[in-house]
Amino acid sequence: MALMITDECINCDVCEPECPNEAISQGAEIYEIDPGKCTECVGHYDTPQCREVCPVDCIPMNPDHRESRAELEQKYQRLMSAKS
User: Fold this and answer.
1) How much is the pTM?
2) Which of the chain's termini has less CB crowding within 10 Å, N or C?
3) Contact in structure between 72 and 39 (CB atoms under 8 Å)
């Protein structure tokens, strides 16, 4: 399941540089996560790094983008293949 950033986001800028897939970007009002790039850090880390650094705990699972661990691993592989 991809993650999402809620409107509790305070635009502190700590999550964006932590994302290894470059899935986080500044939106119109708050940061946003591209569900097509978010693997919950599967393939990179044991836990989602954006959630680790978020001071206001505003990064829950996105219920509109449910994915299994296997699907997240496949997405990670596709993203890595596209980079090379």
Assistant:
1) 0.92
2) C
3) yes
Helix (H, G, I), strand (E, B) or coil at 69: helix
> For tokens 């699972």, what's the residue?
61
- Reading phi first (left if > 0) and then psi (alpha if -120 to 50, else beta), residue 9 is in beta
Structure-token pair, residue 75:
């997405």
Q: 52 Cβ partners below 8 Å, 6+ apart? A: 18
The closest alpha carbon to 71, from 46, 36, 47, 44, belongs to 36
Candidates 70, 45, 53, 44; CA nearest to 5 is 53
DSSP 32-56: EE-TTT--TTTTT-SS-HHHHH-SS
